[in-house]
Amino acid sequence: MTYFAFTLDVPAPIAVYDAMHTELLGRTAGAVEGLVVHLCHETSTGFEVTEVWSDRDAWERANSEFVAPAHARQDDGGAVPTLPVPEEFTVHGLVLPGSGLAV
C-alpha cells in the first residue's frame, strides 16, 4: 500500500500546537478517516508534526473539514503563523503493533 506522509516544521511556540490539538481532539476525538498516525514534538525553533495518511485525498478532506477551520479560529489577529508547505516523504516501513499494521 502507498501512503501519503509528510513532516511540517512550524516556527511557532508549542502552545500554538497545544491549542490546535485541543480543538481538533474536541471536534474529532482523534477519529479522522484515513489518518494512520500523527505525532508532534517540540523543536528549538517551534514544533514539528509528522503524519501518515492512507492517501492524499483523505488528508485533503480532513485538512479542509477540520484543520483549516480550526486554524482560522485560532488565528486571533495574527497570533497563529501561516502553516508552511508540508515536506512529503515516502514511507518505507511502518509498524503500529497495537493496530496490527506492519508494512
| Count of distinct structural domains | 1
The helix count comes to 2
Shape: globular
Rounded to the nearest angstrom, the radius of gyration is 14 Å
Low-confidence stretches: none
**Main beta sheet, described?**
4 strands, antiparallel
Helix fraction, binned, reads 25-40%
Mean pLDDT comes to 91
Element order: H for helix, E for strand: EHEEHEEE
Number of strands: 6
Question: Regarding CATH, which class?
Answer: Alpha Beta
User: Can you tell me the CATH topology?
Assistant: Alpha-Beta Plaits
Report the CATH architecture: 2-Layer Sandwich
Assess the beta-strand content as a share of residues: 25-35%
Can you list the strand order of the major beta sheet? 2-3-1-4
Notes on the protein architecture:
With 103 residues, this protein is α+β, with helices and mostly antiparallel strands. It has a single domain, classed as Alpha-Beta Plaits, CATH 3.30.70. The chain is built from 2 helices and 6 strands; from the N terminus they run βαββαβββ. The strands form 2 sheets. A 4-stranded antiparallel β-sheet has the order 2-3-1-4. A hairpin with a 4-residue loop joins strand 5 and strand 6. Helix 1 packs across helix 2. The protein is globular and about 45 Å long.
